[in-house]
TrEMBL record, chains A, B:
Source domain of life: Bacteria
Main location class: cytoplasm
Complexes and interactors: Homodimer.
Originating gene: hisS
GO biological process, one term: histidyl-tRNA aminoacylation
Keyword match Lipoprotein: no
Protein name listed in UniProt: Histidine--tRNA ligase
Length: 456, 456
């Protein structure tokens, strides 16, 4: 094979530095998840196709990676079906498993399958890869990781309060200060649609409203008119386009806009509860902001809707999102299990931390001490010291070959190893170590205890 | 959907306790890998099919999970080929990607693809799932994790010495004392085949020899005869069947058996080097044992061969293995890159630790403190304390609903939460917390600082 090997488009290799940085983010999120009482589960990479198909809409079904059955899979395909040569129709006959598309549906499946072992309310987190046959582009991959935390089995709004705190805790721990946690409520959107006389056009209405930031007030109104929302309704919306002030002030405006909608007022009340809680408890570095244009995953969420925006000045889509869904497990036959959850966008958080240079310097668990190899006797003497350094938790290694000194020093340089130990015949005889500090260029003869102190 | 959902055979859901135990093993191995100077890489879950196919033999090719192409994949299949309806022939036309089958071939691909960015010798570790369409059975899954450490780019035998130390360090850290690290050398097997005049029958010979423990000396000899190995050769083997004594004594016997084989003597010399190093450096809890019947992965290894056996009394196959392979990357066009590596069998190690009850009690990062919810005012007061506990690294949570006291206490019991805090109207007024120690059944009224001390 003369050609250099490659990997499928939309997938990535991660080198040691990248893995270390990703693990740093995972570990930070995981630690916060655990202090908040979430516990980890893991589900298989592939599920039975019927578990996934039909759960993400037609587009989702197309983007799910299907796994070919093993063995003589064609022998089980009906002759007439085969003769049609129709990819869509034949798929379910030659593929019965598919790769996980997100973590939510497998979680719902898990809850239903294990309902008798689970003690509700159940707070779980899950950090695993998912796969989507999407067209790859900048920041969009065919294999990427999701980090989700959800609670199922309680409708308490304290959970929404805690999720806002949790977002704040994670981004504070990552030193990513100044993120905005946007919040909305599906009931407010429904209430508005009701008030403006477009209850049946909720989706058209929110799709248009969602574009307010991008296309501006006039174009949004045009789009609404085009979708058949009456001018009188749009007029009633006017206060919405200029909603401003503190969270509490906006709440009061919404109360007046929605005064005739029971559902809308319920949504406002929920938002107010969450905001009051957060006002009292305080946030460390994030800000909570009401965003009545927020409508992500509309068909799915039934209460609170969350989205997290990177700090001002960083151009990046949302770095987290989530919300309340009142019937997560209904698709698998378990009714009336309310859930609320949030997700972290690992790849985008990575890019933001990179851009703002927020990764800790020591994130890469690089080797700290390299022992130069001058031959077998010296190597064995060195390995005795290395053994003790490792037992003290210090990443240390011996250059495996008695190569030229220059080659070995170059190796230490290229790998940015901070300390090099030189052990020649003389050092072995006098039981010392020559320690070279690569950054400072200094060199000292030390006994083992002094060496350990120096590299610690 | 009335039927309870399920997962594909050979795959597993992991509940919080299982995930915590698995993470404990991963984390222990990872920490040791890093102190030994290994650095992590990750590769995509699926590779281009041509990267994997043909690398694991015909049986391996069959066991690789193939991913169906997206879109109208049948439209690209040639009419004549389609008409044949032959699964084997059609696969490469409808599937161009496949799930990782092990970590070694993707690593070889990685090294070749990134050879210009890599500083050799390159010490990498990798802990990721792999997939095999094997018939599932006890302890054999279709999705399982591998944990590999390899060095490429040096032929130094010090690396073999360090891998023996590394096995010892990991199993000592896991408190799994008394494992046996078996070692052999491919060159010794070749040497023996040469000496007994069956050089062309190396594989038949080692396959038979490998069964010595299971079927006994006589049957092994019968099998060798049956495979055309001459009686005179088998006679020369006699000392091999009764090889015993210390490592050093066995080495001396081998030297005499192999006195006429240059390759065999080279193998003995390598073993002796490794054993001398280990004798000098010492092992903490494991034992190194020469096992001349060890022949795993024969077509692959060219020098040292390792296998780790669980402590006596635990019936379990090998819990680790590895060896030296002199041409890992040749399959991808990069010649003369020697590698040596080892692997840990996570699932089997898990079962052994479970059987011997070696998992630490605190492995499950369970919630430590549950605050009973008596209503919104009390809940808010509780959340202020919970916030401070979490900041101190203590896993704490509020029961989300103001449910009946009994229900909330049952919840704490079922989840084995060690501390429960009761905050009623009175506690809020006097700014105290009633702490109940669930194991001891004791109850105390404490201020926050005393509460923090008590649950720490």
């Amino acid at each position: 094979m003369a050609q250099k090997p490659s990997i499928p488009k939309g997938t990535r290799d991660f080198n040691p530095e990248q893995v270390a940085k990703r693990q740093y983010i995972f570990k930070t999120i995981q630690t916060v998840f655990e202090t908040y009482g979430f516990q980890p589960i893991e589900t298989p990479s592939f599920e039975n196709s019927e578990t996934l198909m039909g759960k993400y809409g037609d587009e989702g079904d197309r983007l799910i990676f299907k796994i070919l059955n093993s063995g003589d899979y064609l022998s089980k395909v009906d002759e007439d079906l085969y003769a049609e040569k129709n990819s869509t129709k034949i798929t379910s006959s030659i593929s019965e498993k598919a790769l996980r598309y997100d973590l939510t549906v497998p979680f719902a499946r898990y809850v239903v399958q294990h309902q008798n072992e689970i003690e509700f309310p159940f707070k779980r987190y899950q950090m695993q890869p998912v796969w989507r046959a999407d067209r790859p582009q900048k920041g969009r991959f065919r294999e990427f990781n999701q980090c989700d935390a959800d609670v199922v089995g309680s409708k308490s709004l304290w959970q929404e309060v805690e999720f806002v705190q949790l977002y704040d805790a994670v981004f504070t721990a990552l030193k990513l200060e100044g993120v905005t946690i946007k919040i909305n409520n599906r009931k407010i959107l429904s209430g508005i649609a009701e008030v403006i006389g477009a209850k049946d056009k909720l989706i058209d209405f929110t799709v248009a409203l969602d574009k307010l930031d991008k296309i501006g007030e006039e174009k949004v109104k045009e789009e609404m008119l085009g979708k058949g929302i009456p001018q009188s309704g749009i007029d009633k919306l006017q206060p919405l386009f200029t909603l401003s002030g503190t969270f509490e002030v906006q709440i009061q405006s919404l109360k007046s806009i929605l005064s005739t909608s029971e559902e809308g007022l319920k949504g406002v009340e929920e938002l107010e509860f969450i905001n009051t809680g957060i006002e009292t408890l305080g946030l460390k570095t994030a800000a909570l902001q009401l965003d009545v244009t927020l409508a992500r995953g509309l068909n799915y969420y039934t209460g609170a809707i969350f989205e997290v925006a990177a700090p001002d000045g960083v151009s990046m889509g949302s770095i987290g999102g989530g919300g309340r869904y009142d019937d997560l497990t209904g698709i698998f036959g378990l009714k009336d299990v309310s859930g609320v959850g949030i997700s972290f966008g690992l790849d985008r958080i990575y890019l933001v931390l990179e851009e703002l240079e927020l990764f800790p310097e020591a994130v890469n668990k690089n080797v700290k001490v390299l022992f130069i190899n001058f031959g077998d006797a010296e190597a064995l003497y060195s390995l005795k010291a290395i053994q003790k350094l490792r037992a003290a938790g210090i990443n240390a290694e011996l250059y495996p070959d008695a190569a030229k000194m220059k080659k070995q020093m170059n190796h230490a340089n290229k790998r940015a190893i901070p300390f090099v130990v030189l052990v020649g015949e003389e050092e072995v005889k006098s039981e010392v170590f020559t320690l070279k500090n690569m950054a400072e260029g200094t060199q000292d003869k030390l006994n083992f205890d002094a060496l350990l102190d120096a590299v610690k």
